[in-house]
Amino acid sequence: EVQLVESGGGLVQPGGSLRLSCAASGFTFSVYAMTWVRQAPGKGLEWVSSVNDGGGSTTYADSVKGRFTISRDNAKNNLFLQMNNLKSDDTAVYYCASRKKDTIEVITTWSEYDDWGQGTQVTVSS
User: Fold this and answer.
1) Is pLDDT above 90 for 44?
2) Which DSSP string corresponds to the chain?
3) pLDDT score of 104 more than 90
């Protein structure tokens, strides 16, 4: 019933930009903190960014700080990740994940997330 559907991935050159979206349904999106997690080829899951339920509080991994911006539109049940100045190391499958919390925490115990999307591929290559 719960669905998180990522979109917006693709192939981009280094220095380029992409905007990822995550469409949520089947739960009350506006009371969940939301998170982006990525998995690079041959690597484990990496926490990227989180936003609180209302969208007013955000946090980022050091590797993306200053380049990525997380946001949400609760009226449309959408989560976004604006990615600028992309690097080859940003190549990964990007997942959105939900937690029923009003505040954000840096959670890297993946079982603590309530639901996950299927992921969208981002490839940064010249």
Assistant:
1) yes
2) --EEEEE--EEE-TT--EEEEEEEESS-GGGSEEEEEEE-TT--EEEEEEE-TTS--EEE-TTTTTTEEEEEETTTTEEEEEE-S--GGG-EEEEEEEES-SS------GGGSSEE---EEEEE--
3) no
